[in-house]
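Preliminary data (for renewal application), zinc ion complex.
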Amino acid sequence: MSNYQELYKKYRPKDWDGLVGQTGVVRDLRKEVVSNQIPTAYLFAGKQHGCGKTSAAWIMAKAVNCENLDKETGNPCNECQTCKNIDNNNQLGVHYVSMANNGSVKDANDIIRQAQMSQPINRPVWILDESHRMSKEAAEAWLIPLESPNMKALFIFCSTEPERMIDTVKSRVQQKSFRSINALDIYKHLEKISQIENLELTEDQLKSASLEGNGSLRNALQNLEVIARDGKLAGSYKNKILSMLASRNYVKSLEVSAEMESEGQDYLQATQQLYRDFSDMLLLIAGATPSDNVGNPKSYLKFASSIGPHGILEAIKLLGDTVNTMVYNTVDNRILFEVLMFKLIEVIKKYISTNTKK
Ligand SMILES: [Zn+2]
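Predicted structure:
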């Protein structure tokens, strides 16, 4: 088992063809590589973790330095020494920095100073992950370098919360928006990988791994590993939370929350998922087609009809406010989540009773 490599690492895309579910962004990036119109800085933005931002940044680092770039597709060859070195995180001049731990103004100045020195590579690249986590002063340190005509380096800012980055930086970078990957694209990809890996999973198991990935390929691949090992997903919190809400059980909500904490679940992600679920319920009530994240439209519709459109709207408002508070939080997200569950149960109680009185 010591050589075991997690699936999401093993199947990390190596060129544009392999990047799943980001057709628009990939088309633009290929074009820019082929026509050699690469800016000084990109911002790869996308709410969802694991939807391909840093993978795209690594592919870009290879594409701008590859010795045998495919001039038609913009794909790096993955065979030359530079490509190999970059894949092994072993290439001088190509750097990955997480701004979560390196977000001070001193860190920014260090990077900028290095970028201005000569680097042993055609186009030095800095991948600056979680770039919304750098301090305001650090962000301001980039303003002049980003506009310098002599800047040879390529900076790729990656962020799940681009709204937290200052506008003066954003106006100096080329932004590419990565969307949550749709469940069907994820399903097809998981199907392919489970065949290569001989996992012998059923269609339902593949569906469950895809849907519970919530638009993230990384989550979905991790789900696939759990299902291949245990037969099912232990932490299927989406369904647990919805059935707890349907039963309007305060005590149960605290139990679910405690369980989430002990399994290291992300409260913000769970709340964002719930926001999407309630938005889908609204669409279902209106007779519109929900997103393909809805596993079982019938059970959603039943739950949604019992609360009614006004109740659903009130729930969506509460969820949206909580997501915002969690993003900018100074409070423990677990507490926010538990308060939210109590408020949602209140809303559901209120509207279920008015709906049944009529
Ligand atoms: Zn190459």
